[in-house]
Amino acid sequence: MTQNKIFGAGSVSYEKQGRAGKKSKIKRFWEEEKTVLEEEKGGKKDVGGRGGGGGFHEVDVGSGSLFHLVTDEDLLTSITNDGDSSDGDDDESELDESGEDDDEVVFESEDGFESGTEDSGASSLGVENTKDEDGDSSSDYSEYGSEEIEHEGEEGNNDESSEGSMVSHEHEEESSQSKPFCKVKQTSSSNVSNSSTFSNKTLSRDCEKNINNKVAQVEENRTLQQADEYKSDTSDEEDIRNTVGNIPMNWYNDYAHLGYEWDGKKVMKPLKEDELDNFLRRMEDPNFWRTVRDRQTGQDVVLSDVDVDIIQRLQAQKIPDANFDDVAPWVEWFTSEVMQTPIVRVPDHKRSFLPSRIEARQVAKMVHAIKMGWMKPREQKKQSQEPTFYMLWQTDEGVEHMRRVQNHIPAPKRHLPGHAESYNPPPEYLFDKRELKVWNKQKTTPWKRKLHFIPQKYSSLRAVPAYDRFINERFQRCLDLYLCPRARKMRLTIQPEDLLPQLPNPKDLQPFPTVMSMVYEGHTDMVRSISVEPKGQYMVSGSDDLTIKVWEIATGRCLRTVPVGGVVRSVSWCPNQALSLIAVAADRKVLLVNPGVGDHLICSKTDTLLDEPPEHDVIVPERVKTAVQWEQAPEDIWKNGIRVIINHFKEVRQVTWHARGDYFATVMPDGQNRSVVIHQLSKRRSQVPFSKSKGLVQCVLFHPIRPFFFVATQKVVRVYDLAKQELVKKLYSNSKWISSIAIHPGGDNLLVGTYDRKMLWFDLDLSTKPYQTLRLHGTAVRGVAYHRQYPLFASGSDDRSLIVCHGMVYKLVIYCPFIDEMFVPPVLQGNI
Amino acid sequence: MAVQVEVRFVTKRRQFAVPDTPFTVPSNVGSRELNSLINELLKGRDPDKHCREVDFDFLVCGEVLRVPLSDHLEEHSISSEVTVDVEYFERVPAPEPRDCLLHDDWVSAVQVKNGWILSGCYDNTLHLWTTKGKHQLTIPGHTGPIKAVTWVTHNDTLVTFVSASHDQTAMLWEWNVSTNAVECIHVCRGHERALECVGVSSCQSRMATGGWDTHLKIWSAGKSYFAQTPLMTLKGHKEAISAVQWTDSSEICTASWDHTLRLWDAEIGGIKTEIVGNKSFFDASWSPLNGLLITASADKHIRLYDPRSTEGSLVKSTFTSHTQWVQSVRWSTTEDHQFVSGSYDQQVKLWDSRSPKAPLFDLKGHDGKVLCCDWSEPELIVSGGSDNTLRIFQSKQHK
Prior knowledge:
Chain A: Residues 252-513 form the BOP1 N-terminal domain. The complex is a heterodimer of chains A (832) and B (399). Chain A has 832 residues and is α+β, with helices and mostly antiparallel strands. Among the domains of chain A are: 2-240, no CATH class; 514-693, Methylamine Dehydrogenase, Chain H; 701-832, YVTN repeat-like/Quinoprotein amine dehydrogenase (Methylamine Dehydrogenase, Chain H, 7 Propeller). The radius of gyration of chain A is 67 Å and the shape is elongated. The model of chain A is unreliable at 1-227 and 812-825 (pLDDT under 50). Helices cover 6% and strands 50% of the residues of chain B. Chain B has helices at residues 31-45, 69-75; strands at 4-11, 23-26, 56-60, 63-64, 84-90, 96-102, 107-113, 116-121, 126-130, 135-139, 146-154, 158-165, 169-176, 181-189, 195-200, 206-211, 215-220, 232-235, 241-248, 251-256, 260-265, 270-276, 281-286, 293-297, 301-305, 315-320, 326-331, 338-343, 347-352, 361-364, 370-374, 380-385, 389-394. The interface between A and B is medium-sized, with 17 and 28 residues.
């Protein structure tokens, strides 16, 4: 009976599920399923039609098996019911009980419905209504149900049939429990709400299904049921009449029994009837046509009228439930139409926010008030006037104290112990005799020891004694911390930009030339060389038109033109201000010209000086004599200003004066070892200082102060000491071809221009390598020059540009090398 | 809709005074519109009297209005919302070229006085011309190009003048106008290099010369025997002295190539003030009317110095319009704010010191470098150049 009860409950839950969706869904499902399932078996379709829940098919299949079980059990009742409908007293006597049951049923079903509503999610209202209806309608059936049960119980007792005995017995024992049983029945009945046929209908329908199965002889349904057997929640509920379960019964074909009862007894097959018996029964038994065999138990079962009716309806392809209203008005719980404003629960977007008009008005009021100055923003609270305390009892001397607090330097960390410190060190850490000896020897100088202790081996940590030097080492550590000053290491961070010199603003470096001021017009051919008078009033220029011209600088007036009879490659004004003299290198001659400008006195003095050649009392060496001959200018060219002619054996490329104006040097690049000649004006004497050719001499230069002589060959500038007659220095230009050199008036800085576009600045005191290399020009640098006073130097190049650089030469201390600073290059672009 | 500016017109000339009420004018007006406005106002003041049209120049914030008013105000960072005082004065009428006196060589020195033009030439001669352009006299005597000439005294018949030359001498000449005879009173020898400039004191008794020997020498301009030797030699400049001018009877202002301007005390013989610029000065002119110095430099700029000021930047303003080396500058002797400058870009320019951006007029005509210019006589602007000409422009000043 308990099994029954449980089983019943299971069916209840199922029924509820089925019902919950029934009203809402059944129609639609039915319509759909009609078409779909028509090909399938009637039983299945039937069940599907009834249980149209959410998971239609699943429920369908599960319920199939369920119904099968239910069928077997309830068939009995229905059959017995049919069989014995005479026990009216009993029925009535049990009526009260059943009434109570009814209440309970209602209660239970309520629960069930609630759960059902929860499950299905359908409107609970409709279900409630139906529930009420159930309550009402079921009162009719309650009798019926209770009757049944009683009947069953009685039947069980009376029949003493093999399957019923056990059940009935239990029932008797638990007569008090008939209530729950009833309840179960009732529940199931009430759940079959609208059906007027009570549970019988269900039962019979299920019966009929089975019959159908039988009649149709279709195994498919069964296999389907088998396959989905375990999907059912109630799969553990067994048919206690035959415990073999839901197996193909043909497995027992070869046996005399069909299965096993609850207590293990064999369920014997009924006696096999032969054709004769069968015929006799058909003839005799009026119910033969409605008798079917329960394959599970092997018993013959007589179908009731209701069952037969359902079977007929099914065979006629009608809805098995006669009361079902298949044309009930359609309740559209979920509309099929697309709604204009779909019901969605997405929270509103911020931009859909509409501020309150009242609030907006208030805010506007406030803004207006602020604008008009009526309302002022709240002033920030003044910082709370905390009382100021003065240091009365303490002085500011506690700097060290504050440093320890604020600028704490942590103590240096000790090394972590190593293997040697281990109580059980590896053997290589243990001292051998020699090491021990050394260790002992260093007793007086313990700081020289490699280890401050002797590694020792103990068998176990337990055996390690107390460390005898603990106090000592602690003390030492304290001393270390206390006595050793700790200093914070400051790391110097220097930005690369800081290392660069501060370049001055070009405006601050004025004066330097910025515009072309004057064009001196008059020469008809290329001007190769110019030289400015020491005073700066006049200028001389030598040109390829075989003349030199003397100009007044300020006005550009050509004051004098002297034809020199050769291409002028170099002109140089004598730096001696007591002389008015220009040295002109024209072809193979060097002419000394008195321009006749400037002080008349000086001019006349110069003339008188050069008038008479001094007496020669020194024999000129042959080597010099063949190279250079001095000659007094003849009368016809004397009036042009030419005073002295010095004939050279090769073409003179350059002439340059010594700062004092007595010596001047000439360069003949083709002159081999006599390419440089130094002339002395006062004695009208020449020397060839170099006996060996060191290369193609490009240009020479006198040091402005010291008796040094610079000779620039193609790659090297050699510095000779004329007094000591020795080579002082060799300056390596690191370039291919030097074009020109210039020396700073201070005498320690040399500027070298090269044909490979570089300008090199040598600091003579520093190095033989260029102090600085300027690659400012795009083409070969032809000439370089220093300004006499201002920290300027200039370079002229083949790219028609003149670059004026600012290069300050500082003299900080005597004997201290110059410190040079570079440059702001204003570029003067000329045009040819 | 243009921005409106409120202006108030003021003037120093009584006959052109307009009501003191502010006017609102569009900010983009130029001087031409303001000019017509003023003329209308003047016409409206006394409609019965027929006024001739007068051209005015307008002075806003101490500078002559050359651009639209809004730009001008923006340049001076003045708000267009305040009332702007606009001073107006009669525009200087354009000088008219009047004559061209041909010389044999570069004309390097010139001065006009009392209807006579004295010019010095690179061919070592002095020339006397009338302002009508009639050549009066050629005076040889120097042996070098003449770099400076100055009139000393003027009597009806007897005129003295001095000339400085590259031959290291300055010569004092006496010219008898009636007989047209010139006599060299004496030759000032003492300089060791070429002379560049000469100046005569306001009392006409002394003169100062400077040159390439960097010395400033003071001579007596009288006929005394001692005039042969310098009264005083002032050393201090490091480069050539390019200009010398007496500011009063005992003070000499010099400009030099060594980038300095100096004021010397001719009595004591010392430097009173030194102004250091950063360019060589080729000429300087001091105006007794406003006490300011203008200088000429090679970098195209004319600079205005105030020798009296001790603070602030030395250069009060820079006049930039020439395209080349400026060789000479001269203040007007009558107008506070006007001066002329001659440059190697073949132009003489007439400037208003309140208009540093642009000159009042460009006086063109020379075919070569302008080596000298003079405006001693208010009506005549004369300039000599390397095209061997002396050009005369007639300046019509309103009186």
